[in-house]
């Protein structure tokens, strides 16, 4: 029994995006209960659920309505499952797998009608309304509050209104959304603006606030003549077709390195500020605070420029670890780093994408463990095949099972994307149950031998 506990990796399942509807109702309760009991039958530990800012505070500043989520959490508790609650400060819709549209609160969007620079902006001036630009984090632009204050107030209200579920141990994790799709990144590859895999994406720092910030930083560094990049291409370009990312391009020059350092540091400061507010809001609660996700941008990983990562804000090169600074920032909050694409293998990706998800996952996990923080993970795309599950098992316990004590390295938990009737159907459900058993038990990793 001791080994069973020592090797145990919890498994959660993401609930459907629209489990609470955009108009703040918990519908289809009987169907959800049936699915939750199936998860319990598979010995899943709990579920992850988005708690949408655009739903809860939709009627006006500080007008929170938690009733539908309280009903949902009660059903989850009654089914004997735990909750990972995501503080979702982003829009639902416009990303991979989004079948529901939940915008930011309308009163926030109305501020943007008069001041569109509150949204992330690309070089051509196209705005992205998925998430407020980090350039306004400390600007009192929404009803006299800064976005950081609005996020803080929201989390404090969640704690106050969900105190019974927190005290009872039903809610075990607070996953803090830090950007588009809840991820700590810039919205560099938006499908709703025409991006297609494996495009390099675009830098998203051309709103007036970030422009001013960069100009001040460059001036303070003694280079007032430096401007934001004008030669980094467009969403679907390849690195070699741009002056910025091509071999020995701008990204390796003094000016390019200065820009990339500034761009990535702004992202770190953004995450640090919000996680600081989360730590304060949930101080005294028996929950783990986590960064909802660091995105698994595996395309162009084998290219010298790592262009896809750079446009998203991850300053990662062959001679520069872009993920360890993120892990170090999280360590200040005793936070968990949640990473994605755990199910992917290199050979599954097209050669022209210069993709290496396996190496990327190893790098991020190693960076986290070297900074002595917990790391959790998710699959990037719904998969039901043994190959995907085996890869997740390998990443969850990279040193295998230790029969004489705790594994040297293991993940804090794994969340499967996503609960659906297809997952619970026949053969798919049988494979999933076997996967959960392997994640929990002191057994070899292989789910099914080829």
From TrEMBL:
<dbReference type="InterPro" id="IPR017853">
    <property type="entry name" value="GH"/>
</dbReference>
<feature type="binding site">
    <location>
        <begin position="379"/>
        <end position="380"/>
    </location>
    <ligand>
        <name>substrate</name>
    </ligand>
</feature>
<keyword id="KW-0378">Hydrolase</keyword>
<feature type="active site" description="Proton acceptor">
    <location>
        <position position="378"/>
    </location>
</feature>
<protein>
    <recommendedName>
        <fullName>Beta-amylase</fullName>
        <ecNumber>3.2.1.2</ecNumber>
    </recommendedName>
</protein>
<feature type="binding site">
    <location>
        <position position="292"/>
    </location>
    <ligand>
        <name>substrate</name>
    </ligand>
</feature>
<dbReference type="GO" id="GO:0000272">
    <property type="term" value="P:polysaccharide catabolic process"/>
</dbReference>
<feature type="binding site">
    <location>
        <position position="340"/>
    </location>
    <ligand>
        <name>substrate</name>
    </ligand>
</feature>
<keyword id="KW-0624">Polysaccharide degradation</keyword>
<dbReference type="InterPro" id="IPR001554">
    <property type="entry name" value="Glyco_hydro_14"/>
</dbReference>
<feature type="binding site">
    <location>
        <position position="90"/>
    </location>
    <ligand>
        <name>substrate</name>
    </ligand>
</feature>
<keyword id="KW-0119">Carbohydrate metabolism</keyword>
<comment type="similarity">
    <text>Belongs to the glycosyl hydrolase 14 family.</text>
</comment>
<feature type="binding site">
    <location>
        <position position="50"/>
    </location>
    <ligand>
        <name>substrate</name>
    </ligand>
</feature>
<feature type="binding site">
    <location>
        <position position="98"/>
    </location>
    <ligand>
        <name>substrate</name>
    </ligand>
</feature>
<feature type="active site" description="Proton donor">
    <location>
        <position position="183"/>
    </location>
</feature>
<dbReference type="InterPro" id="IPR001371">
    <property type="entry name" value="Glyco_hydro_14B_pln"/>
</dbReference>
<dbReference type="GO" id="GO:0016161">
    <property type="term" value="F:beta-amylase activity"/>
</dbReference>
<feature type="binding site">
    <location>
        <position position="418"/>
    </location>
    <ligand>
        <name>substrate</name>
    </ligand>
</feature>
<dbReference type="InterPro" id="IPR018238">
    <property type="entry name" value="Glyco_hydro_14_CS"/>
</dbReference>
<keyword id="KW-0326">Glycosidase</keyword>
<feature type="binding site">
    <location>
        <position position="298"/>
    </location>
    <ligand>
        <name>substrate</name>
    </ligand>
</feature>
<dbReference type="Pfam" id="PF01373">
    <property type="entry name" value="Glyco_hydro_14"/>
</dbReference>
């Amino acid at each position: 029994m001791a080994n069973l506990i020592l090797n145990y990796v919890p498994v959660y399942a993401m609930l459907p995006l629209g489990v609470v509807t955009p108009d703040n109702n918990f519908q289809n309760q009987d169907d959800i209960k049936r699915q939750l009991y199936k998860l319990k039958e598979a010995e899943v530990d709990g579920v992850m659920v988005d708690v949408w800012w655009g739903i809860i505070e939709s009627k006006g500043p500080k007008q929170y309505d938690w009733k539908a989520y309280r009903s949902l959490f009660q059903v989850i508790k009654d089914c004997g499952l735990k909750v990972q609650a995501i503080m979702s400060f982003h829009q639902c819709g416009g990303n991979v797998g989004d079948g529901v549209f939940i915008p930011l609160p309308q009163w926030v969007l109305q501020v943007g009608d008069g001041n569109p620079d509150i949204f992330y902006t690309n070089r051509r001036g196209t705005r992205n309304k998925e998430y407020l630009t980090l350039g306004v984090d400390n600007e009192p632009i929404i009803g006299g509050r800064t976005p950081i204050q609005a996020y803080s107030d929201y989390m404090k209200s969640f704690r106050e209104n969900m105190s019974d579920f927190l005290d009872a141990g039903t809610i075990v994790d607070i996953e803090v959304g830090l950007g588009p799709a809840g991820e700590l990144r810039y919205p560099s590859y938006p499908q709703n603006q025409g991006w297609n895999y494996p495009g390099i994406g675009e830098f998203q720092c051309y709103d007036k606030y970030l422009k001013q910030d960069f100009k001040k930083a460059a001036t303070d560094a003694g280079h007032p003549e430096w401007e934001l990049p004008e030669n980094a291409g467009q969403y679907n370009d390849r690195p070699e077709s741009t002056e910025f990312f091509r071999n020995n391009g701008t990204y390796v020059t003094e000016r390019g390195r200065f820009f990339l350092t500034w761009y990535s540091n702004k992202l770190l400061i953004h995450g640090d500020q919000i996680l600081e507010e989360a730590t304060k809001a949930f101080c005294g609660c028996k929950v783990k605070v986590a960064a909802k996700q660091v995105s698994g941008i595996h395309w162009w990983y084998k290219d010298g420029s790592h262009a896809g990562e750079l446009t998203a804000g991850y300053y990662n090169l062959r001679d520069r670890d872009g993920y360890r600074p993120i892990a170090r920032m999280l360590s200040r909050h005793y936070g968990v780093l949640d990473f994605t694409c755990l199910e992917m293998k290199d050979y599954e990706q097209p050669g022209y994408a210069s993709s290496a998800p396996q190496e990327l996952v190893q790098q991020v996990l190693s960076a986290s463990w070297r900074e002595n923080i917990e790391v959790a993970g998710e699959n990037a795309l719904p998969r039901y095949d043994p190959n995907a599950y085996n890869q997740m098992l390998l990443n969850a316990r990279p040193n295998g099972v230790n029969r004489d004590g705790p594994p040297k390295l293991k993940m804090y938990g794994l969340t499967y994307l996503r609960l659906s009737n297809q997952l619970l159907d026949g053969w798919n459900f049988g494979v999933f149950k076997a996967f959960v058993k392997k994640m929990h038990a002191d057994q070899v990793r292989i789910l099914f031998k080829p």
